[in-house]
Write a structure and sequence with these properties.
CATH superfamily: Isochorismatase-like
Strand order of the largest sheet: 6-5-4-1-2-3-7
Helix content: 25-40%
Strand content: 15-25%
Number of strands: 7
Shape: globular
Number of helices: 8
Distance between the termini: 42 Å
Structural class: alpha/beta
CATH architecture: 3-Layer(aba) Sandwich
Order of helices and strands: HEHHHEEHEHEHEHE
Number of domains: 1
CATH topology: Rossmann fold
Length: about 250
């Protein structure tokens, strides 16, 4: 049973079935993997109860973040084995002048960083970028907004974006809608995405699967990656890094 079924009314189910939404498209032939915002700001510095984590890291998704980590590792292993391009996103460190912060609707946006040895925008070390990966810093929810992501994907001849990360209802959703708008196929790894809210996570996946992407089991995506040739991107320039992609 899909994770979102528990939140749908019978009318919802019959309406979307009758309307034809949620048809499976399937991934293409030249994928890239995108890991969205899995930094300590969204995971906390350790696996602990959600409200305990939020007391220190106001954006934390708590246990759901750490539950997703092995699935993200599986995706990374599958992509790297086949030399598939890997992109990460994270946010800018907070500036004293507030420039680029955005008009976030959160009363704790100016909270101090916990002194625990992890920067809020540092990508979690268990899934840390490797030398050939690209790290994109962003100021907006979508990884496409104000960055070079779309031109990088076009240059590589990518036709499919495999997506994992957080939050499902926020930056994942915004990025997937933009990927769809740029005519990329999108496969969302269900267990490798997470949110601080159960309902927002489930309903975001429902809506994205209905209209913009295929929500797939992570294992099925890894199986798909295993069918690809490791030579798909041979001869194309791989970034030395990790480096931050420039913003427009």
């Amino acid at each position: 049973m899909p994770i979102w079924d528990q939140f749908l009314t019978e009318t919802d189910k019959s309406t979307f079935a009758a309307s034809g939404y949620g048809a499976f498209l399937g991934p293409g032939k030249r994928p890239a993997l995108l890991i969205i915002d899995i930094s300590y700001a969204f995971t906390g510095d350790k696996d602990e109860p959600l409200l305990d984590s939020i007391s220190k890291w106001h954006n934390s998704c708590g246990p759901s973040a750490w539950k997703a980590m092995p699935y993200v590792q599986d995706l990374l292993a599958g992509a790297r084995e086949k030399n598939i391009p890997v992109f990460y996103s994270t946010g800018y460190e907070k500036r004293d002048d507030g420039f680029g912060r955005g008009l976030w609707r959160n009363s704790r946006v100016n909270d101090a960083i916990p002194p625990v040895g992890f920067g809020p925008q540092e990508i979690v070390r268990e899934i840390a970028p490797q030398e050939r990966d690209v790290v994109i810093t962003k100021r907006a929810p979508s990884v496409f907004h104000g960055t070079t992501l779309v031109s990088d994907l076009i240059a590589l001849g990518v036709d499919t974006l495999i997506v994992a990360g957080t939050t499902t209802s926020g930056c994942v959703r915004a990025t997937v809608v933009d990927a769809f708008s740029h005519n990329f196929r999108v496969a969302i790894a269900e267990e490798a995405c997470f949110d601080r809210g159960e309902a927002s996570h489930a309903m975001a996946l429902f809506d994205l699967n209905a209209k913009y992407a295929d929500v797939m089991d992570t294992a099925d995506i890894v199986d798909y990656l295993s069918t690809l040739s490791p030579d798909l991107f041979v001869g194309q320039i791989a970034p030395a890094g990790p480096v931050a992609a420039a913003v427009a």
